[in-house]
Write a structure and sequence with these properties.
Layout: E1 2-11, E2 14-24, E3 29-33, H1 40-47, E4 55-60, E5 63-64, H2 70-74, E6 77-80, H3 92-103, H4 108-122, H5 138-150, E7 156-160, H6 168-185, E8 188-193, H7 196-202, E9 205-210, E10 213-218, H8 220-225, H9 230-238, H10 242-246
Parallel strand pairs: 3-8, 3-9, 6-7, 7-8
Antiparallel strand pairs: 1-2, 1-4, 4-5, 9-10
Bound molecules: adenosine-5'-diphosphate (ADP) and magnesium ion (MG).
Keywords: ATP-binding, Nucleotide-binding, Transport
Pfam families: ABC_tran (PF00005)
Organism: Aureliella helgolandensis
């Protein structure tokens, strides 16, 4: 569905992503995990075409992303950031419908209907639709960011630590709801997190990165039982997951 073919990225002499191959199948959820600064956000931004790679290419549904087609292809990708990235001067509804209005791809009635549908799906209270982002809670802001990403019904969703800034109880609810949404909509999903518990909750298919490269891909269980290298064990141990502590 989406793939990286020998993609690398460097800034001046610093390599932030080593030559990387990655394939994500249609309808699959992949979780990217790794310590801060290992290149997760860079990899995601390359997938969505916000950063051009130094080598290699990105293919989306078989088409190589180029400067000519990147804008068009990006409309087939929903992107959610840790802080939501909402425009503070636009209401919730205006944030959600911004791109659809810009592209003139829907009439007003269809847009309103879609917003309602997405509010239901993400469990956003309808009374918040006319408020500004500063007038709703952090958890609600992330629900709005998810609505905005889903507005044009893209086949691919890219989420960069969407729950990273939320307190544990709010995060717990949103994790449950997001998992349900992924299942229901059958989207292809690439989710970035730095939390092993969250990675295990969302995915059978977890990719662990360190220092700009993929160290291991598989289930959390594989990481525990068959670590590809010492770093995998160190990373898991540092997360203090109770099942790991109990087995040591
Ligand atoms: P992560 O999301 O895993 O925390 P990032 O992908 O944001 O990591 O960053 C990976 C590395 O690339 C970091 O060391 C960061 O400082 C560096 N980096 C990211 N963007 C730039 C940039 N525009 N110029 C120089 N270095 C950058
Ligand atoms: Mg990041």
């Amino acid at each position: 569905m989406i793939e990286l073919d020998n993609v690398s990225k460097q800034y001046d002499a610093t390599v932030v992503l080593q030559p990387t191959n990655l394939q994500v199948g249609a309808g699959k959820t992949v979780v990217l995990i790794g310590p801060s600064g290992c290149g997760k956000s860079t990899l995601l931004r390359i997938l969505i075409g916000l950063i051009p790679p130094n080598t290699g290419c990105v293919r989306f549904q078989g088409t190589t992303i180029t400067p000519d087609n990147v804008l068009e292809i990006r409309h087939l990708m929903g992107y959610v950031l840790q802080d939501g990235g909402l425009f503070p001067h636009l209401s919730v509804t205006d944030n959600v419908t911004l791109l659809a209005r810009f592209l003139k791809s829907m009439n007003a009635e269809a847009m309103q209907q879609r917003v309602q549908e997405l509010a239901d799906l993400t469990k956003l209270p309808v009374e918040t639709l006319n408020r500004f982002p500063s007038q709703i809670s952090g958890g609600q802001r992330q629900r709005v960011a998810i609505m905005r990403a889903l507005m044009l019904d893209p086949p691919l969703l890219l989420l960069d630590e969407p729950m990273g800034a939320l307190d544990p109880l709010v995060r717990y609810d949103l994790q449950e709801d997001l998992k349900q949404i992924f299942r229901e909509l059958k989207k292809t999903v690439v989710l970035v997190t730095h939390d092993m518990g969250e990675a295990g909750f969302f995915g059978e298919d977890v990719i662990l990165m360190a220092n700009g490269r993929i160290v291991q891909r598989g289930q959390i269980q594989d990481f525990l039982q068959h670590p590809a290298e010492e770093f995998v064990t160190q990373f898991i141990t540092a997360q203090r997951i109770p099942i790991v502590a109990a087995s040591q």
